[in-house]
Design a protein that fits this description.
7-stranded mixed beta sheet, binds S-adenosylmethionine, Rossmann fold, alpha/beta, 7 strands, globular
Length: about 210
């Protein structure tokens, strides 16, 4: 499994006891992201949905309790443990899988899901294009992806410190669109919305051909 190349701060890769606390408070801030992604992802009862970089699993708990099946992956062991606890009942019922892993190597077969999302995480994936390719691979034809990109080159902020210190991406709309297309998505659209403390959060949306 490829490790993130730089040492990330706790919110971007929670570890240990502090990470547990971070996982507990993160949904308070990220609820602004969940609220904006949920209507775009528009989950239906028949959906099989995957959340990449799921953190403690709050989004799926709050917005995907009605879908056919849920799956989630995170590189933080603490987050996987917290998400597993949160979805214990669904795991026992066989309609949920929470796994430890890296976004560019998803451990699911081709065409497994009808919807994929990733929130608050894409900016730190060390292999963003490969990660999008993997999201596309595990989607069925016609399946949809919605990826939130909080720090980006269109939001009028200087992200050079985060880029240098943490290897984070601060991509332009054109770069994101190109990556989505190169990953195999069609009908690519880039929407903007506010997130908490994020003047211009990007939502990259696409459909698997
Ligand atoms: C800011 S948190 C967002 C968590 C969750 N999506 C939310 O919005 O509450 C970023 C998450 O991405 C995970 N992460 C970081 N690098 C990753 C990678 N390369 N592959 C998978 N997950 C990763 C972190 O462990 C962390 O849980």
């Amino acid at each position: 499994m490829d490790a993130p190349t730089k040492k990330l701060p706790q919110p971007l890769l929670p570890r240990g006891l502090v990470g547990r606390f971070v996982g507990w408070v993160m949904p308070l801030g990220h609820s602004a992201i969940y609220k904006r992604v949920a209507p775009v992802l528009n989950l239906q009862p028949e959906d099989d949905v995957l959340d990449v970089g799921c953190g403690a699993g709050y989004f799926l708990k709050r917005y995907a309790s009605h879908v056919n099946s849920i799956a989630a992956l995170d590189y933080s062991e603490v987050m996987v443990e917290m998400a597993t606890n949160k979805h214990r009942d669904r795991i026992a019922a066989g309609t949920a899988a929470i796994v430890h892993g890296e976004a560019s190597q998803l451990p699911w077969e081709d065409n497994r899901f009808s919807a994929v999302t990733s929130m608050g995480s894409f900016i730190v994936f060390p292999k963003p294009l490969e990660s999008l390719k993997e999201m596309c691979r595990v989607l069925r034809p016609g399946g949809r992806a919605v990826v939130s990109i909080e720090y980006n080159a269109e939001d009028g902020k200087d992200h050079s410190k985060e880029v240098k210190n943490y290897g984070m991406s601060a991509l332009t709309e054109g770069e994101v669109r190109q990556m989505m297309e190169d990953a195999g998505f069609s009908e690519v659209s880039i929407k903007y919305d506010k997130g908490l403390g994020m003047p211009k959060m990007m939502l990259a949306c696409g459909i698997k051909k």
